[in-house]
Amino acid sequence: MKPQSETSDDAMTRSGIRLTPQRRYVYEALMEKRDHPTALEVFLRAKARMPSLSLATVYNCLDALTESGLIRQVNCDRASSRYCPNLIPHGHFFCKECGVVFDVPLNPSLATEWEVPQGTLVSHVEINLRGTCASCAQKPNTSTL
Ligand SMILES: [Zn+2]
Ligand SMILES: [Zn+2]
Are residues 17 and 77 in the same domain? Predict the structure, then answer.
């Protein structure tokens, strides 16, 4: 069998997560637009396809998907958690002006530079970069606050 581009079904099967329709809609809502939505944004997207969906269910699904390793929870300061389906090692850039969050590919050779004490097992690395995105940096300084 030739490897084809992985579908959400493949990824779910591999992770061993039980495929409920709710989880599938939540996962697909994350996959269709990879802009690191909050739980509320995921809820609004998934609800468009599954009107019976509740916000509590979306939270449960997001927890289950995060635990199974299919998605990552992304946190910055005290803002609401965001969710990311990109499982390739990467950091997140947070724009302090417009709030955009985007993936920053991690150079694997740099990722091994951490001086972790011997015997320590690192299970996950979270890298947040903050600053001003390119489009905000171009704008004249017109603060909205
Ligand atoms: Zn991401
Ligand atoms: Zn920006």
Answer: yes
- How would you write 27-47 as a 3-class SS string? HHHHHHCCCCCEHHHHHHHHH
Compute, in angstroms, the gap from residue 7 CA to the centroid of ligand 1.
18
So what's the pLDDT on residue 141? 65
Distance 139 CA to ligand 1 centre (A): 25
What distance in angstroms lies between residue 117's CA and the mean position of ligand 1's atoms?
27
Residue 2 lies in a domain: no
Q: What is the DSSP letter of 50?
A: -
* Residue 84 clears pLDDT 90, i.e. is over it: yes
Task: State pLDDT tens for residues 110-144.
Answer: 656 678 899 998 877 788 999 999 999 998 765 55
Question: Ligand 2 (ion): which residues have CB within 5 A?
Answer: 95, 97-98, 100, 133, 136
In a domain, 144, yes or no: no
